[in-house]
Structures are given as structure tokens and as C-alpha cells.
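Exercise 7. Given the components listed, write out the predicted structure of the assembled complex. Treat all entries as one system.
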Amino acid sequence: MKQWGFLAVVIMATGAVVWGSRSAASITSRPLDAGDAHLEQLDAACVEIWLRGGVEPVGEADELTVLRRLTLGLHGVIPSLAQIREFEADRRPDRLRHWAHALLEDRKFADYFAERFARALVDTLGAETDLYDRSRLVTYLADRFDANAPFDETARQLISASGSPAVRPEVNFVTAAISEDQLNVEMITRRMGRAFLGQRLDCARCHDDPYSSWRQDGFEGLAGYFAQASLEGIVVRDDATREYTPTPDARPEGETASACLPFEPQWGADSNSDDDASADREQLARWITHGENRRFPRAIVNRLWAIVYGRPLSSPVDNLPDPDVPLVLSPLLDVLEQAFVASGYDVKYVLQVMVASRPFRLASRYDLRDEGEIDKLLRHFAAFPISRLLPCEAFASLRQTASVNTLVGQVDPVGRFLEEAAAREYGREYGDFGCDELEPAPVTTEQALLQMNGQAIRDSLDADTVGLANQLAYLSSSDERCLKACYLVCLARRPDRTEQKHFLPQLQQADSATRVEVIADTLWSLVNSPEFVHNR
Amino acid sequence: MRRRPGPFDWQQLSRRDALRISVAGGLSFLLPPLGVRAREERGTGRAKSLILLWMNGGQSQLESWDPHPGGPAGISTSLGTISTSIPGVEIAESYPQMAEQLHRVSVIRSLVSQETSHERGRHAVRTGHRQLRHVVHPTLGAILAHQLPTVEVALPPYLSLLGPPRSYEGGHLGHQYDAFKVHQPGGALKNVDAGVSSERLARRRKNLAVLTNSFRRGREAAAEVKTYERAVDRAQQLMDSRQLDVFRIDTESQATRAAYGSHEFGRGCLVARRLVERGVRVVEVSLNGWDSHVDNLTKQRGRAKVLDPAMSALIDDLAARDLLQSTVVLCVGEFGRTPTINKNEGRDHWPHAFSCLVGGGGIAGGRRIGATDPTGQSRAPSDPVSIPDLHATILATLGVEYGKRLQTPTGRRLAICTGSPVAQLLAE
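Answer.
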């Protein structure tokens, strides 16, 4: 296989040119109407859930807090001081709705969501082959998000991807599962199930899943589609005669399984052909994204919700109950599912509905002490859930605190390479959980140490001549303004009275020699506060 | 501000507390005497420790501790074998230094698990329980940290060197019992130096307390806030520790460092020795690269070049410092490898009968437990030792009531361990 490595690299390098000429279908994105029908249905569903559960929603959060949620949810970074100033100067009614649309039209949205979806599709780890290039898959996804391509089409391209991963970047979804020169059929079947069906099929690999309706032969039928795919030189090709061979711990040796849809096989039919559809990955892709297969849109909207709210509607994000099972959250999930399908799988539209809805505007403070009551409040979406920033969000936000302007990313290749390396190192030290990033995770001592003393914070807040502390020391016209700027840069809010009483004397008592240090220490304290490291 | 006590707060117990605990336990007479040097390092306490050398991926028993010389082709290793310091016991020739140290530990050749996948296998061997859907069992290290709190040690009680970043060792005991991860052992611990004067550090901490109070308002009972505050507290305690030099091996002699090997696993083993010397309860050191589905012989032989000097130096060093009698050393992976060679000249996963080394801390050395079928026909070994039995042996040796039930957060009461100690391994 190694002889193909060099050739693969050459083709990878030239493939970008070929790919660049491909066009993607897209849905025109526009700001959400104030009276959008799905938004009204979603808000009505929330009220229904609150009434049924007997919970009173908390009050609304202030607009700057919601702006912070928006930039974190859609770009993965806190707002810059420049954005905050611009937002405060915006006099349009319902400016948050307009800002949500503008953020979605920014390429940063596409890049951020591509990375988040890539984690679900291929994790963050490498593969044991030269024929896998994760960055090309991420770029492909980003292009699709940027063009607002219908997501069902994106899913079909990924599931049925074949050919060279250099020419067709979506093939990297397949080559990511190559292990020891062979496609790991169980791995790609599991990933497909989690990402596109919202189902963990792990148990069904070896036995019928006692906790869901998935049977072992259902898993094996799905795996049968991917078993047809294999590497031929540097391309992925399918051979319909190949069958899935379960591992010896799952079935007696010698048994095989052919491609087979687990239920509603008519969903896999090809509407453009009168012939019976052959059992290939295109059939599987049609079946998964069929308009009546409710698992697909529910899996996607649950993940979209998780990205912008910090936690999924239904947890875990990739293992939803059967669509007909009534749940507390069913009214919300049903509306979002309908909105997604009716809009033609328009990701930007459904995200706008989510962030304009009432739960996104609620505060994250409540006068409750009983953990059971708090849990009930959050289960009924009657308060915004606090969630800890992911390592990629924490790193990007730390970087943002180094500047009053909105960071746009490195343009030159060397700078970009170094920045990506720094982000990777931060993620490695922090403990990047990749495809499991939405699972509840502990705050570790190592993470706290990294946040307090790591290279990223040193780079961002060092009191050198070009650092933010220095800029604020010399550009602020008063101590009060300096302190406010520190707070806005780091927390997107102004200090309250208690905080002013604590921090202002430090600035007032500082002499010219120590002023920068005092400001740097203020900034350090702000970025290490629980308020900075949480989406709230 | 008064510091809030936390379950991981290893600085909370005073010398008097420690004395009270040991007297109340009434067990101090059972603890082995410490040598002068060890006593200097560890104080007057007699705490026992565990060093787990984790062979991640699954070490081949045939190319290490159970080689079956002269067996059928395709089953027996094609490596040569060598005699060891245990009479009648031969091991693969890739372990010449361990051959000399083998009498200080025992060889189990009949370890039995039921799990063939890496994830489930790791869970089974590290926790002593099969993986369940609704309960996450704590690892052996987390149980020891929970059951035997360390005293007078300003270091985490449980560390993982070179281990996987994505792991939650605490299980249902809580994340405060997760292992502290060190990715580059041997150098100064990363990110513990604030890089500012003590005056500025004090100012930063005062500021942080004010901001924490602000955020807590209206969120007093939010679990996320509490866990973050606890992590910051633990981080600050570690920054204040006067024992951080334990992570740096540059104070060790050149000869000592060379003996462990000039690779990160060797450095990890040397740091592990330094940590238990200071009273740390559990240290895990991981060695990757054992998953030899392809070209088994080359991979196993390559890993042996790393493991052999490091483990033999560790055992020798512990013995020389009178620490071996208070430190259990366990070398094991998630399973062994198939007796037959596959089409890629590799060996696949084999949990049905594999090997480990265990000794020290009061466990008998120089013994061989169990045997596997030299023809590969029979899966079942003689004198099988289950994973729970191995755990029970170690827990009993370290003074933990292994059959005790602990309550999980959901109210279930689960036994720490369901096995029984292996009588042959209990020192006489």
C-alpha cells in the first residue's frame, strides 16, 4: 500500500483545483421573518412544555449575554469589543435576529460548524492511511455550510462517496475508517448510525439491543452496504458481490450478511428509475434521507441544538429514542424536525429558528437551591443551560481576548499553520474528547492549570508592549473606562458595583510602572473566572 | 477567606489526622518497616502504593512471559527463550534483564477475561468489572485513592503517566478520583508556574474569588460551577506544593536514568518510583504499541526493548530503596494475543488465557501461577485467575476490604470487587 502514498499526496495536492470547479446546490439564506411560522410553533411548543411540566420559566437574559451566546454558538468564540460596540450602536428593532443572520453569512460559521460536524463523522484522530486527509473533509463540509447546501444532499454525498479522496473530498469520510489497509466496516457503520440516524448501533453489532428496537441483523444489513466498498489502489470502489463478515465474537465463523435495509425498504427506491434499486450505498443514502425517515432530521436538529445551546435536546446527542416515543421534549423536537424537512434541510434557517426562540433568550440564573428542581427546570427548557466551553472554543476565546478587534484568522500559510498547531496543542493538553465532546465531562486539575498558566494565556495576556493590557493602559481615558473595557473584552458585560469596588482601587493605586501589570492581572482573573469558561 | 474542604483535598489532613487514622485502624503493626532512605522520603507513614505498568493494546504472552518453547509452528514463538531467576521458568529472550529480576515478582500465565475488544477489555482489566450500560466502575487506582486517602502528600494521590487523554478513572466515585494526567514525564510539570511574583499571584487569586462569587449568585446549586471551583482549588494547591521537584528526573544520576532507558516510558517508570517514594498512592505508566495484528514478532520485540530495561530497573530500584515491600507492581494489558498466527503474520486479541507480572507490596514473588496449553487446542488454562481475583489479591494486600459495597450516585450498592484473593500470591 505504501507505493500509493506518494501518488495519493500528489493527487491530493491537485485535487483541490478539480474540486474548486464543482458547484453545490444551495438554499438562499435570508434573515428570519419576525412572524416566522416555525418560530411561533417552537415558542408555542415551549409554552406547552412549561405548562405540562408545571414550571415557570426564568426571566430573559440581557442582550449582550445573548450576543455572547450567538457568537459562541455560531462561530465558537466570544464576541470582540468591536462587535459589542457595533451591536450596541445598532438601533434596528430585534437586532439579535439580524445579527444571527449576519453571523451565519460569515465564513467563520461554516468553518466552525464543519469542524463540529467532522467530529461526529470522523472524530479528531488520524487514520492509518495516506488516503485520509481530515482537513479536506472539513473544507468540503465548510463549503457546503457556506453555500447553505441542503443537508440531505450533503449526507447522501458522504454516505455514497466513492472514487479518489483527493478528487472527491467527501470520500475522506470513508477512508477515515481505514485500518490496516482495509475498511473497518463496523466503524463506519457505527459512525453513520450516530451522525445520520442519531442511533448508537454498537450493541446491535453483537446482539439485539435490549434498550432500543435495533436488532443484530439490522446492524449487519447496514454494514453490508459498507462491506461492498474497498480500496483499489488509491480509490474507493464498490463491488456488490462483497458481503459483511461479522467478527467471530458476534457470529459463528463463516457467516456473512448482505446489504439489507432494516425497515421500510421502499424508502431506498430510486424515484428516477423504474427498475428496482440495486442494494448499493446510493440506496442506503436515499433510505436514510428519505422524507419519511424521521430519524435523520431529528438526529441533525438535535446536534444543531447541542452546538448552539451547549447541550442537546435529547442526550446523548447521537442516541435518540424512537421517534414515536413520547418525551417531555417531543413538542420541540417535532417542530424542529418539521421546520428542517419543510425548508429543504436548510441548516441556516433552522439555526435561526433555534436562536430566535424563547429558550435561547432565557437567563441562566434561577432562585432555586434544590438540585431536583433545577434539573426539572432545565429538562423543561425553562432556563438557559450553563455549559463549559469546549477546548476549541476556549482557545479561540482566549485568542480573542488579545485584541479589541474581531480576529479573522491568519491569512498567510505559515501563520495559519502555527496557529493551528497551537490550537491542537491546547486541545491535546486540555483533553479534546473529539466525537464524544458533547458527553458530560469533568473539569480536571490539568485543565484548570492550562487555563491559568498555559502558553495560550501567556500569549494572549502577557503585559508586553503590544499586548491588550498595554493598549488599555495607554488608550483608556479613565480607570473606570479601562475596567469596563476589560470586562467587555472578556465577559461581554460591564462590572457591577461590588466588582468595581474591588477592582477600581487597584487601578487607582497603581503607578505608571505597575499599571500594565494590574490590568494584565485583571484580565487574567477575568479569563479564569467561571463566567469566562462557561456559555451562560 | 476560609478554604472549602473538597474530597480531593490532600492537604486537608494534618499529621495528627494521619496518626488518628492509623491508630483507629489498628493495623499499623501489619505494615512493613521502611528503610532509612525510604523513610526519609516518605516520612514516618507506612502507606502502600501501586505502580501499574499498562501494556496498552495487548501484549503477547507468547513473546513475553509464556513463550512455549518447542511448541507447534505457528503457535510457539519463533523467539528464543531464556532461563530466569525463578527455577524452571523460561521467558522470551527479549527480556534478558527481567529474567534476572523475575524472582521478585510472580508470573501469572492463566489470566482470564471475557472481553475481546480494546475498550471493553481495558474496562474489565482496569476496573475488575465487565462494562455495564448504566454504571461506570472506578478503576483499581481510583478505588485505592478513595479507600486509602493519602496524608501529608501535597501531590495528587493517583497519577497516569503517558496514559490516554480520554479516560475517566473515577467512575461512579466521581471525577475527583480521576487520575492526574502527565503526558511528558521526566521534566518539570507543565503549567504549574504562574510566572509572576507572589504579590501578583495573591492579587490574581483575590480577584478570582470576587468574580467567582459574582458568577455564583443565582447559580449556587449549579453542578457546573461547583466542579469548576473544585478544579481551580486543586490546581492552586498543586501550584503551591513544595513537592513538585518529584516530577524532574534531572537530579537522578546519569547511571540511574540510563538504566531505565532513554525513552518516555523509561522516564515514566523513574518518575513513578519517585512518586511512590513521596507517598503517592497509585501511579500508572502506559506503554503503547502492543496491538500486533500485523507482523507480531517485530512489534512485540520492539516493545520489549523498551519494557525490559525500564521494568527491571524499576523493580531493582524499588528493592534497593526498601520500597518494593510497600509497593505493588503490576504489568498487564487488556488481553493477550491469539496462540495462532494470522495471515498477516500477526496475532489477534485473546482474553481466554494471558499473562501478567505482579509482585511487591507483600505479594509473594518467585511464583508461577497457571499454565496454558502448549498446543493451542484448549482455550482454558490450568489454575485460571480471573481479573476480579487479581484485583482482590492486590486490594487485600494493600489493606482494602475488597468485598465492601459502595453506594453509587443512583443509590445502587456495588461491591468494590467480586473476586477472591489468589492464595498462592499471598506472601507467607
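Discussion: Chain B touches chain A through 55 residues (CB under 8 Å). Confidence is low (pLDDT under 50) at residues 1-46 of chain B.
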